[in-house]
Write a structure and sequence with these properties.
This protein has one domain. Helices cover about 75% and strands about 0% of the residues. The longest helix is centred in the first third of the chain and has 28 residues. It is an all-alpha fold. Its EC number is 1.13.11.63. GO terms for molecular function: beta-carotene 15,15'-dioxygenase activity; carotenoid dioxygenase activity; iron ion binding.
Length: about 350
């Protein structure tokens, strides 16, 4: 097997690593709050959970996704930016078409995108701020990304099957009411099988990383974060867990990564670097285009409000919409941008 270059936590300041610690603290705080509420027999109805999700994912996290692209595109030049945006829009159009043509397949891809984003994005944070000296090969890094990203979808699918299946149904019903019924009888078997695969992957990832470690502390950080994410998604209701994970964990840690590598980035060409004024205008136009796209999907979809409750329907709709823009976020923003990308670490 070919080896891959690993990072020994060479970047970052105490402030950047403080953001890393803060992501632990806020997730633990949410977890403890939920456990205390359960202990006190205090439950939140689905409308309240939906409100928390929409605040976390739409108000807090959606703007950060735009920032990741702006930070990546700034100083890259007009020809590159044009190709980047063109490919992005092409994938968006293709994913929308897939949801209309085969919504169950679209749902499966949406779940895979969430796993990929959480996994690969999280791995690059470790590269920049901690270390990945225990991840020696590309297959091992792929396994690590699957484990870290799998906590976001596979764990709640296993521990919260009722809510997961319900929102899967709501998401599919936006495009073709009743279509999820064709696969619903197999959901339990699929959930158990996927849970078994994930558990085995966690064991192999932790064991192989321990054997190949250079420093015990960095392996412990990786395993400790994985354990925290598993507990969080296993014990916190899935709607709240997903809605708060991305702003409080993913985005906070990506901000730390960006700050940590800022001084390592190539010096921009002043002639090709847009002014702050131009960046602000582009960000505003991007926000208008994003919500315009959401409005277009809502207009074209035969059943955009897939339940009788607007908040719950909003969770289903924005789960679909965010996955639509997240696919090119990963593919164009990272995998095809081999020179830098949204998760760049020198």
């Amino acid at each position: 097997m070919a080896t891959v270059e690993t990072r020994i936590g060479g970047f970052g300041t105490d402030r950047d690593r403080g953001l890393l610690s803060a992501s632990w603290i806020v997730l633990i705080a949410v977890l403890i709050g939920v456990l205390l509420a359960q202990w006190a027999n205090v439950s939140m109805d689905m409308r309240t959970q939906a409100g928390i999700y929409l605040f976390g994912m739409v108000v807090l996290n959606l703007p950060y996704g735009g920032y990741e692209h702006m930070a990546n595109l700034r100083s890259r030049g007009l020809p590159f930016g044009t190709r980047y945006i063109g490919l992005y829009l092409l994938l968006v159009a293709g994913f929308i078409a897939l949801f209309f043509a085969a919504p169950v397949v679209g749902l499966a891809l949406a779940i895979a995108v969430a796993v990929t984003k959480g996994g690969h994005g999280g791995l690059r944070v470790l590269d920049a701020l901690v270390s990945t000296d225990h991840l020696r090969t590309k297959p091992q890094r792929g396994l690590a990304a699957f484990v870290r990203g799998g906590t976001v979808m596979i764990v709640p699918m296993y521990f919260w099957p009722g809510d997961f299946a319900a929102f899967s149904t709501f998401m599919v019903d936006i495009f073709r009411p009743g279509a999820f019924a064709a696969v619903a009888p197999y959901f339990t078997e699929f959930r158990v099988a996927l849970g078994g695969v994930f558990a085995a992957a966690v064991g192999v990832h932790a064991g192989l990383g321990f054997v190949r470690r250079e420093a015990l502390s960095t392996w412990l950080v990786d395993v400790g974060e994985t354990a925290l994410l598993i507990l969080y998604f296993a014990l916190v209701p899935v709607v709240i867990a997903v809605g708060l994970y991305f702003p409080l964990w993913y985005s906070m840690r990506q901000s730390a990564r960006v700050e940590a590598i800022r001084d390592e980035l190539p010096s921009p060409d002043p002639e090709s670097t847009p002014s702050l004024h131009a960046v602000v205008i582009a960000f505003v136009l991007g926000a208008i285009a994003t919500f315009g796209l959401a409005a277009l999907v809502a207009t074209l979809a035969p059943n955009p409000l897939s339940t009788n409750d607007p908040l719950v329907s909003g969770v289903a709709f924005f789960s679909v919409f965010i996955s639509i823009i997240a696919l090119p976020h990963v593919v164009v923003g990272s995998w095809l941008d081999t020179d830098r990308g949204i998760w760049y670490v020198p």
